[in-house]
Structure formats: structure tokens, C-alpha cells
Amino acid sequence: MTKKGYLIGKYYELMDSKKESKIAFYTNPANARLESFQIADQLYYVGDKKVCIHLIDTGEGLILLDSGYFGTTHLLVDSIFRAGFDPADVRWIIHSHGHHDHYGASEEFRTMYGTKLAISKVDAESLRKYPHRSAIDTSEYPFAKTPEFDYEIEDGEIFELGNIKIRCVLTPGHTDGVLSFFFDVTYEGKTYLAGMLGGAGVNALTLPYVYYNERTEDPAHQMLGSIEKIWNEPVVVHLGNHPGNNKTLQKREKKLAEGGNPFIAPDSWQSFLTELRAKAEKIIIDNKKLDEEVSAIVCD
Ligand SMILES: [Zn+2]
User: How far is the CA of 258 from the centre of ligand 1 (A)?
Assistant: First the structure.
């Protein structure tokens, strides 16, 4: 057996171990439902307990950052209405990266409301060349299909609509084309920078994923470079890509129980990046070890 064959086998073993919980999720996605809530004057959380979706009211239409899993469009539509908006006013869905859990609901949403879909140019090209990088084939959702995107965003591009300017920064690692988002929001008369690292899952940095996804650059080193690139962003309203990134669920509970706004948290950004850097550094060591172990037991 080749090293590649062995490590891809490991990838499928890992996916098999997650199969049951994925099927349980799709059997009744409403178990992951979360009541939408407001973070800042023009910013709302309309995602669920598994994946973040943010709604931005630009004054001239709405923008969504990501759309969530396949089979959850009804949750998103409900969340938008409950936040006090009409889904038909969503002009754009901007995707953080090219994985199915972030764009799954997009095609259905576009079909209903004529919304346009955007993603980084790098991930759009990556998905065209390596469709399996979407992770759709191991998603356990039987009807999943990657949409055609309407617009491809370049590194550093400012995505402007109404009174909102979203700075889109390429931060590869989790995928080659992760976009991080930075934009001003207001809350109680003050302006704050909101920011999200658009892909923080470190599983994607491990050797079985690297081989499965045919990544040519080492994603762990890419992620360290990306952390460096966005380290000094003066983010006060730290947004998650998945709720664990910024403790979305805990902050929401605290907000409901005690009032105030736990999302105004100047320390959250760098403490998150510090933890992430440590995880990526550990994976570099683990990958090296695994590579040596595998090389010792396979023939090439
Ligand atoms: Zn992802």
C-alpha cells in the first residue's frame, strides 16, 4: 500500500466514525435550531447551534455571511423572519469558504429569493478543480450539490453594499481560499470593528485530510501565516465561523440572562487566535510524527 492510500484510508475511517451523528442531524435538523438574536445595530445571528450565519443590514438590502448546512434552509428563513427581516431582501450570501456546511442552504435560498452567491476566487477555482474538497461526499446528505457562484472575491477586496463595507482578507489554512471578514458596526452610539476568521477547524490541517484533499501547500503552515496576517486587526466584535470559535452560545445565554452585550469583547479575538496558533503548531508536530510512522509501514 502507498502512503497516500494508507492516509486516505485513515480519512475514511474518521468519516465513518462520524457517520451516525451526521445522519442523526439530517434526520431532524430542527434539533440544532437556535432563536436568532441581535449582536449590534446592523448585525444579527441567524445561524444554528452547529454553524454560524450572520445577517448584516446594509440599509440597502441584506447580506448573509454563509447559509448553513444542506437541509436547513427552513431554519434560516425562520431565523431571518424572527430577526424582523424579509428573506427576499437578502441581496448576497458571501461564503467564508468552500465547505458544504457553509453553503448548503444557498442554492435553495437563491431559488426562492434570487439572492446572489459569492465566495473567494481561490475556493471557487479549488472546487472546480477538486470537487471533493467540498467534503460533500462524506457529508451524508444524499442530495448535496455545490452551487455555481455568481461572484468570486479577491484577497483584500472591499465588498460594499449600502452603508457597509466588508473587507475580505484571504486567510488560507482550513481551505486554500478561506476569507476573513472585517467591517464596522455600531452599538449604543459607538463604532466597533467586527471580525471573523472564516475557517478555523484544525482537523483540515491533519495529514489524512491533506492527502484526501490533495493539498499542495501545508495547510498548518498556511494557517500560522494567516493568523499572523490578521493578528493586529483591532476586532472588538469577534464573530464565529462555528459557534465554538467565539463562544457564541455562551455569550448569547449571558446576554439573555444578564443583559449587556458580551459580544463587545476586545480580548476575544487575540485569545482565540492564540489558542488556534497553539493547535496548529501541535498539528505540525503530530503530522511529522504520523508521516514518519506511516513511511515506516508502507512501501513508498
Ligand atoms: Zn470548513
Answer: 33
